[in-house]
Amino acid sequence: MRLKSTDGKLEFRAFMRRSGDLPENFSVGLAFLPKDGTGEVLLLRCNGPHGGYNDSFDPEHPHWDFHVHRASAEMIEAGRRPKRRQP
Q1: Which of 4, 50, 67, 73 could bridge 25 with an S-S bond, Cβ 3.0-4.6 Å?
Q2: Residue 42 has pLDDT above 80, yes or no
Q3: What does the angle CA 68 – CA 70 – CA 74 come to, to the nearest 5 degrees?
Q4: What is the CA radius of gyration of the chain?
Q5: DSSP secondary-structure letter at 64?
Q6: 7-44 burial: b if 16+ Cβ within 10 Å, else e
């Protein structure tokens, strides 16, 4: 679903997915769509439990429970994946 800011200048994409095999494994999120064509920036993703964790990405936070990933300005500016799990 595409969304626009109240002034119409910014555009976002909201999404929702659920695993057919594991219904408790879901993902709901919000991405910013820059007009300069650089590609979407994932701002927020809420996930259901989906197993272990990717130790190279976020070793301190296993994904066996419900969790939230949020973008940080530091990650975006460094050109890295902007989302990290929030405690």
Answers
A1: 50
A2: yes
A3: 150
A4: 14
A5: S
A6: eeeeebeeeeeeeeeeeebbeebbbbbeeeeeeebbbb
Q: Are 36 and 10 in contact (CB under 8 A)?
A: no
pLDDT tens, position by position, 11-39: 999 999 887 777 777 889 999 999 998 88
Give the DSSP letter string of 32-51: E--TTSS--EEEEEEE---S
Confidence of residue 85 (pLDDT cuts 50, 70, 90): very low
Q: Give the start-to-end residue ranges of the domains of the chain.
A: 2-86
Residue 73 has phi, psi (to 5 degrees) of -60, -40
Are the C-beta atoms of 25 and 18 separated by less than 8 Å? Answer: yes
Q: How far is residue 77's CA from residue 87's CA, in Å, rounded to a whole number? A: 22
Which amino acid, one-letter code, is at 82?
Answer: P
